[in-house]
Amino acid sequence: MQPTTPLVLCVLLSQVLLLTSAEDLDCTPGFQQKLFHINQPAEFIEDQAILNLTFSDCKGNDKLHYEVSSPYFKVNNDGSLVALRNITAVGKTLFVHAQTPHAEDMAELVIVGGKDIQGSLQDIFKFERTSPVPRQKRSIVVSPILIPENQRQPFPRDVGKVVDSDRPEGSKFRLTGKGVDQEPKGIFRINENTGSVSVTRNLDRETIATYQLLVETIDVNGRTLEGPVPLEVIVIDQNDNRPIFQEGPYVGHVMEGSPTGTTVMRMTAFDADDPATDNALLRYNIRQQTPDRPSPNMFYIDPEKGDIVTVVPPALLDRETLENPKYELIIEAQDMAGLDVGLTGTATATIMIDDKNDHSPKFTKKEFQATVEEGAVGVIVNLTVEDKDDPTTGAWRAAYTIINGNPGQSFEIHTNPQTNEGMLSVVKPLDYEISAFHTLLIKVENEDPLVPDVSYGPSSTATVHITVLDVNEGPVFHPDPMMVTKQEHISVGSVLLTVNATDPDSLQHQTIRYSVYKDPAGWLNINPINGTVDTTAVLDRESPFVHNSVYTALFLAIDSGNPPATGTGTLLITLEDVNDNAPFIYPTVAEVCDDAKNLSVVILGASDKDLHPNTDPFKFEIHKPTVPDKVWKISKINNTHALVSLLQNLNKANYHLPIMVTDSGKPPMTNITDLRVQVCSCKNSKVDCNTAGAPHFSTTAVLLLSFFSLARL
């Protein structure tokens, strides 16, 4: 086995020394001094040199470029560190990054007595200060590569180099991982012969902050000789993202009269830059307040937390005296801890001064007048109130109560939701003859309770005087409806009853006349003076104008007022039944075959327009004087039906059979009806009744129809 060849692999970082070869010991690329201590002055003066740094890439420092971790400092070409403006606090540490096409390094400046503004970049970049080239007892030694994001052309550019002091001839370097041969591919590459690591495009820390790569050496056949060794690439953040308010719209509410220092709301912004740097350290301030009265500084925002609080006395937060209860604040968030070089983002905060019930409603006057005609209902007067509170809240909406003068509950009061007025209504008709005047005491309150230091005063009650106007009221029938029971078919001219109507206008002493208003059958007459109702025709319970044995008529009572007033009364006449209708049979036509084995002809039913007991049970008989014996037979089935049958077959012809049916009334009534029986020829399932001289009806169908009628009864 071939012994392991010693290999020194140095990945040059922003603080790591780049070696061009292991044998070149006369010149060490990088800062000659890497750690400085500077006492914190009262103020760093603009353009005044603070110290001198010495950097060499051992190749003439062509295209040397310096970067300082603080935007308030720069390094001149001669290596002098100066402030760009007068500044007092810069933190505890500054870092200076130097770079040429051949080498790069980083120096650390410790500010003795400086205040900590943000976490140390040493922690962020994860490198050791003591040695730029970590060396271990191993062939491949690597350290993180630091690359600033958003670098400009040209690309590719070297960012590190692998140096092998005793690499076998023909061996090569290989770099793998995400960013090389895995997506996103092609960002980094390594010169397989020289070991130079280069980046091919600019980087975005907010997309990928670190890349974890692997470095190894391979032989000509691609077999690994040494490694792989992890190589971490850290993208150094630049302040390239503005703060963004992501959670809008921002609306806050504060109750009027709130104490100074009341928190209204919190507004926070997001910065996509590295949260461990000042690039994402935000500070908040109020850029503008609209309106700017009664104070241009009604609110204050905590610069670090974003909490918006009130800063004016409670008396200035009086919603009723404010020009507008809505304030709009332009809130600015600035990174770099709020320094002038920081990027900014803005959002609008809307703050509503909410109402509390610190004003009681007051009637616009102590007394209200109303007039209403007797017998009328509805709104008679609108009571107006004033309230300085917010019309959209329960602190403004009024609730009215009648506290006196309404024993009969004739009045009600409701709130008009649009105007907040109290709508006083009559819900039970008033009677002038009982009382011509009414006085009500009304109280008004808010839906929401008043604040403790405010109460309802005398202005929260009002008196309403109501005058009832007399009108000519129509006479009233007593009783209404009027009811009477009579037997049908009573004699014409019979007196049914005498109606009675009185005039509510008792103080006017008016006379009353009567007339018929509605008499559908024309059976009635009324005396216009005394109201006596008699009959002008026979009352018939079976009339189509009678419903459920009740006949309805309407009468008018007319007073002598000017103009006259009319009242309407209803008369309900219940008619008792008498046996005045004879029963009738159905059906009246039947068929039977001349050779039928079943000699049943038809089932007869009977009906009667009268009521029980003047109807069934019915008695069915054949009227024998006109019918020969021993041919027909009728048999009772039940109280309403009977079966007609033959005693022998008959020749094909039409036969008329007189059926006599009698009801159960006292005295009974009898009806004789001819049942026409058609005897037909029935051969080969065909029924021929033509010779019989009558329409064709199937005996079976007639029987089924009759049984159906029987079943329904």
Automatic annotation (TrEMBL):
Residues 147-245, 246-363, 364-477, 478-585, 584-697 form the Cadherin domain. InterPro entries: Cadherin, Cadherin-like_dom, Cadherin-like_sf, Cadherin_CS, Cadherin_pro_dom. Pfam families: Cadherin, Cadherin_pro. GO terms for cellular component: adherens junction; catenin complex; cytoplasm; side of membrane. Residues 1-22 form the signal peptide. Gene3D superfamilies: Cadherins. The keyword Electron transport does not apply. Its main location: membrane. One of its GO terms (molecular function) is calcium ion binding. It is found in: Cell membrane; Cytoplasm. CDD domains: Cadherin_repeat. It comes from the Eukaryota. Transmembrane segments: none annotated. It is a lipid-anchor; GPI-anchor. SMART domains: CA, Cadherin_pro. SUPFAM superfamilies: Cadherin-like (SSF49313). Keywords: Calcium, Cell adhesion, Cell membrane, Cleavage on pair of basic residues, Cytoplasm, Glycoprotein, GPI-anchor, Lipoprotein, Membrane, Metal-binding, Repeat, Signal. GO terms for biological process: adherens junction organization; calcium-dependent cell-cell adhesion via plasma membrane cell adhesion molecules; cell migration; cell morphogenesis; cell-cell adhesion mediated by cadherin; cell-cell junction assembly; homophilic cell adhesion via plasma membrane adhesion molecules. Cadherins are calcium-dependent cell adhesion proteins. They preferentially interact with themselves in a homophilic manner in connecting cells; cadherins may thus contribute to the sorting of heterogeneous cell types. May act as a negative regulator of neural cell growth. By contrast to classical cadherins, homodimerization in trans is not mediated by cadherin EC1 domain strand-swapping, but instead through a homophilic adhesive interface which joins two elongated EC1-EC2 domains through a region near their Ca2+-binding sites to form a tetrahedral, X-like shape. This is Cadherin-13.
